[in-house]
Amino acid sequence: MSTLQTGRVSPTEMASTRLTVNLTGLVTATFTPLTSEGELNLSVIGPYVDYLIKDQGVRNIFVNGTTGEGMSFSVEERKRVAEEWCLRAKNKMDNVIVHVGCLSLKDSKDLANHAVTVGANGIGVISPSFFKPKTADALRSYLKEVASAAPTLPFYYYHLPSYTGVNLLASDVCKGLETVIPTFSGVKFSGTDLMDFGQCVKYSQPNQSLFFGVDEQLLAALAFGANGAVGSLFNYLGSHFNKLLIAFAQGDLVRARTLQFKVQDLLAFASKYGFDVAVNKQLMSDLSGLSLGPPRLPLIPCPPETSAAVAQKYHQIFPPED
Amino acid sequence: MSTLQTGRVSPTEMASTRLTVNLTGLVTATFTPLTSEGELNLSVIGPYVDYLIKDQGVRNIFVNGTTGEGMSFSVEERKRVAEEWCLRAKNKMDNVIVHVGCLSLKDSKDLANHAVTVGANGIGVISPSFFKPKTADALRSYLKEVASAAPTLPFYYYHLPSYTGVNLLASDVCKGLETVIPTFSGVKFSGTDLMDFGQCVKYSQPNQSLFFGVDEQLLAALAFGANGAVGSLFNYLGSHFNKLLIAFAQGDLVRARTLQFKVQDLLAFASKYGFDVAVNKQLMSDLSGLSLGPPRLPLIPCPPETSAAVAQKYHQIFPPED
Amino acid sequence: MSTLQTGRVSPTEMASTRLTVNLTGLVTATFTPLTSEGELNLSVIGPYVDYLIKDQGVRNIFVNGTTGEGMSFSVEERKRVAEEWCLRAKNKMDNVIVHVGCLSLKDSKDLANHAVTVGANGIGVISPSFFKPKTADALRSYLKEVASAAPTLPFYYYHLPSYTGVNLLASDVCKGLETVIPTFSGVKFSGTDLMDFGQCVKYSQPNQSLFFGVDEQLLAALAFGANGAVGSLFNYLGSHFNKLLIAFAQGDLVRARTLQFKVQDLLAFASKYGFDVAVNKQLMSDLSGLSLGPPRLPLIPCPPETSAAVAQKYHQIFPPED
Amino acid sequence: MSTLQTGRVSPTEMASTRLTVNLTGLVTATFTPLTSEGELNLSVIGPYVDYLIKDQGVRNIFVNGTTGEGMSFSVEERKRVAEEWCLRAKNKMDNVIVHVGCLSLKDSKDLANHAVTVGANGIGVISPSFFKPKTADALRSYLKEVASAAPTLPFYYYHLPSYTGVNLLASDVCKGLETVIPTFSGVKFSGTDLMDFGQCVKYSQPNQSLFFGVDEQLLAALAFGANGAVGSLFNYLGSHFNKLLIAFAQGDLVRARTLQFKVQDLLAFASKYGFDVAVNKQLMSDLSGLSLGPPRLPLIPCPPETSAAVAQKYHQIFPPED
């Protein structure tokens, strides 16, 4: 019997992907299916939901985020995507979190309000990145405005310094944010500054979720107290990552590390090709059989040989029996 | 009689702000007036047009750009702003360039098409900056799509590396762009890499405009062959910069330098306070008497003492008789 | 009884600071004592050795590194410092690793050879940072040259991207380095890219040490298989970090996390003051009672009130009975 | 007859490379000749001096700087190089400026003192870049210490942000520096922030030299009042740049621009190959016939085909009759 103390969640909770009090486990950042002409292809979303549940064992999704190219779509398109996911996930998934961050506050509020109407289970908001907020207070004011448009939904701050270039510490943004935004429910921390993440964990409330968003370093964040993870790799490595969560929860760090290092091997290989959302999207089509289509400009379609090479590496590292 | 050869434009052209074949001289990047509640305050735009012409001697404007917080508004708001400027500038201004860049290609095309309908004289497009184009070709494909929605309007590429974080060379983006985008008419170069700017100049076509967008370094760009400038400082230093253009066109580099250094002194002072669009907007209200209101989040209003200190410095450097 | 598998080292090994086959546990990066006039004050080194052993429980040191301001001293000064540490640590410490990295290859070889003559137990080498090596191969060639001057000593690569600005992955530098440098014995990884660190661990040989050098994130690296740590905080938090190592080795992640978060709280506080080697050095003088003197230019002495404030926070977070 | 006012220097002065009151015109940053085994090859320096005077028309040199790989040599080697240049340039060159910047203050002082003894005409000092000075005052204190070791020599601050990563404004470092360092005689400004350069010019004393160090943007700096230039390209484009200086001094900006753009074309071509000091050094050997040898590690020798391709482009852009 293990004496390991993971602190925030019990082994059983950690291995589970079902929501109890607060959201835990794996949350898959979904791609947005497009037709070959680059228009929304909503018909793929239903099968996509079933695939995630059946093939990957994930029951929580994060839509219209970075992986979903949310920033590249119009407000109207984002609404249609969010609505379809909520519709198809109903009674199947545990949680649909809709990302509503934009450069324009009005647009974000519009999307937040829409998320309520379509039955989302929460909203996520990234910092605007053209005008970068100068202080944590400026960003908190912005986030508060967005949250006010969805007063009944759990609110998650989406911290993504590499894309936004925003240098504010997540811990400065989040500390005591529940007093400003009553629905504040946690952070999707997609950075690599684990001291900042550690401070987020330490000063969080018990009902807040600490999701880590850098899949290839998840084990480190688990050691620091992460509740779960939001990431794109769970689209095709969901069951693998569930094993990692279980190994960690059981105190088997050797196994957790082995599982984590396999993921790193895949990404180290893929990064030689310039692994971005476009490559990732094509790889997912190749691996899942779902037809996700091309990315939208300014992303450019991945050359078939690139995704094929990465897919081959995937199959080598993660053979069927694995 | 001066023997100075400035190359691209004659002294008379340079001093003029009227359009001849291609756009030259000063183009003011306008602020967007808001009410104290943060909503559009279109009623200020009419007086704003008159002020620019009468007090600053500028007859070309660039609306919904960085200075105008275009990225912070919804598509609908941007349309209303563009429409009002076009309406009020009619028969008064020479050119209204509408910036239509967005993160979403669909939104940009929508705005480009709208610019045609409201009688704009050109459109400007910045690179999307959340997903950064990886190659000049990717960006060119994006720009081409936007331009196709306004096939009758001159098209300007807006190069702004400090805000967008896009590392592509403007010269790589622009070289031969007229073969891809028939309406390609020039670049608003708001970077400090003068080698890149030099290459833009050298490989430009005669009917293309090379606008420099870093006001405090304009003299350097003039030496490299800039046709004119797009900037925010012309809101309250338009007549001063017109003198600089004239001094340069007359071959009086000593005077041009003296005028340029005064601008640098003002900015060096202002930068100690963190000079951003918010401070700049309040400063313009203070100096012009126009009521431009606050910026929109995530920008936060400038403390009154900050703009007052900068305004005082302005009056000291640029006394009325100057 | 714990079933935790830490993989590379057993709990007993991890808690131990003694060398077995390869170096494990805590390695303190020492400060270099100066007189108030800024000259070497070698007389402090003897008491410093005793203090580290008795008060902090550390038996391994890394001298003339970043903490020791090695780069700021002349070759002659560095030799005198290295010699004194080796002399005073003899029969008391387990390992004295001498950092011999310089901008000049000749100087590094000179220092490497000297390290042999004074009885050091290993050498560490950082990448030159003025001319940054463009490829891992270029850096490996450089390191090989340095190592050849100390063919009898274990060789450690010191990876410090934040100071050097060198963007090469440590895993690309280290993979198979034992075939190029027979004495290659491990890496001091002072970066925050844990995917890179994970790849270092995965592709390391059993006799190589994986030291982590970002003290405030050590727990994350332990989860990834770090053998130990090289850091400056062990100067006054050595016994605290030894508790952290023991907690981790015993599978008590809750306790390990609690101990790690205390360190983060101290650094979060200190970073508001601009925590650098100068502040750290004065803090060490304040906490240890050793007279380490000022830093050398271009570092400037820490204001007494700064180190006093940090020292007060230290005593608050780590009360004597802790 | 031109009415151009260049302000700081008359056309005659600008075209001249001879020193009058303060140093003006072109200063060539020299490479350091090595044998094929990588040791100093001092015998090449005599012919190098004659080549620069006869073939390139330059009479001022800057030795042991970035181009000269000063940072990669030991103090002893740097002394031998400086001595040889001073010896061979005597009665031939107008000025030999010896760069004495190091990471170690003691080494810099040692080199500064040595420069006096070998008859140098000035010293240049770059900021230390491992420990980056946090404030202009810290850097000024450092520079003061170095200058004090060569109290009879003109002192130049060498501003090179891209290599050092030091973000301090040169204008903040230099303003009033003559009150701290009586020998302060100017700046070698090798950055691209022309606002900062403009402030250096405006607040400089009449006896101080404002050298620009980004050769491909020199015309811009001349417009801002630069006295001259320190650069590596003058090794093989000295006579070309002298024509540029003359064209500028005569008020012929069209010609100056044409000459500047040719240089940019060469560098744009070369930069596709990763133009660094190693490539530059081999190119100089190819073009001059001098045998400069390889660079020292961590720079790696330039592949022959690379320098050959750049040399071919050079001959195409600058045909013999040009």
Describe the structure in your own words:
The structure is a homotetramer of 322-residue chains. By secondary structure, chain A is of the alpha/beta class. Chain A has one domain (11-252): Aldolase class I (TIM Barrel). Chain A is 45% helix and 12% strand. Chain A has 14 helices and eight strands. Chain A has helices at residues 11-15, 45-56, 75-89, 105-117, 136-147, 161-164, 170-174, 177-180, 194-202, 218-223, 234-249, 253-271, 277-288, 304-317, and strands at 25-29, 60-63, 95-99, 122-126, 155-159, 184-189, 209-212, 228-231. In chain A, helix 2 (45-56) links the parallel strand 1 (25-29) and strand 2. In chain A, helix 4 packs parallel to helix 5 (136-147), helix 12 (253-271) runs antiparallel to helix 14 (304-317) and helix 13 (277-288) packs across helix 14. Chain A is globular. Residues 1-22 of chain A have low confidence and may be disordered. The C-D interface holds C 66, 69, 71-75, 77, 102-107, 110, 127-135, 137-139, 141-142, 145, 163-165, 274, 276-277, 296-300 and D 66, 69, 71-75, 77, 102-107, 110, 127-135, 137-139, 141-142, 145, 163-165, 274, 276-277, 296-300.
Under the CATH scheme, the architecture of chain A is Alpha-Beta Barrel
* Terminal-residue CA separation of chain A: 25 Å
Highest-level CATH class of chain A: Alpha Beta
Could you tell me the mean pLDDT of chain A?
93
CATH superfamily of chain A: Aldolase class I
- Identify low-pLDDT runs of chain A: 1-22
Q: Please bin the fraction of helical residues of chain A.
A: 40-55%
With helices defined by DSSP (H or I, 4 residues minimum), what is the helix count of chain A? Answer: 14
Instruction: Determine the oligomeric state from the structure.
Output: homotetramer
What gross morphology of chain A would you assign?
globular
Determine Rg of chain A (CA atoms, Å).
Answer: 18 Å
Strand order of the largest sheet of chain A: 1-2-3-4-5-6-7-8
The helix-and-strand class of chain A reads alpha/beta
* Largest beta-sheet details of chain A: 8 strands, parallel, barrel
**CATH fold description of chain A:** TIM Barrel
